[in-house]
Amino acid sequence: EGLPSQCQDPGPLGNTLVIHESSTLTASLFSPAARIIKTKQWCDMLPCLEGEGCDLLINRSGWTCTQPGGRIKTTTVS
């Protein structure tokens, strides 16, 4: 809910976000999305649902979304 349809179904990779670098991304290194990818500040994307807390994984390979009831969803980037 509240996420684009391509983000709702984890598909065959599970909760793994695959980021492909392209010439367009390289050419726009100062865009907000490129900065998030370069610095691995994933929570700046606001990936969690309203009411959930976002935390970076220690090695910045992804993030966790913590629901008010304590359930934690982890997403990794490869």
Automatic annotation (TrEMBL):
Family of this protein: Belongs to the TAFA family.
Protein keywords: Signal
User: Can the keyword Nuclease be found in this entry's annotation?
Assistant: no
- Does Iron show up as a keyword for this record? no
Q: Which InterPro entries match?
A: Chemokine-like_TAFA, TAFA-5
Which terms in the GO cellular component ontology are assigned? extracellular space
Could you cite one Gene Ontology molecular function of this protein?
G protein-coupled receptor binding
Which one GO biological process term can you cite for this protein?
G protein-coupled receptor signaling pathway
Q: What is this protein called?
A: Protein FAM19A5
Pfam entry (one): TAFA
Source organism, top-level taxon: Eukaryota
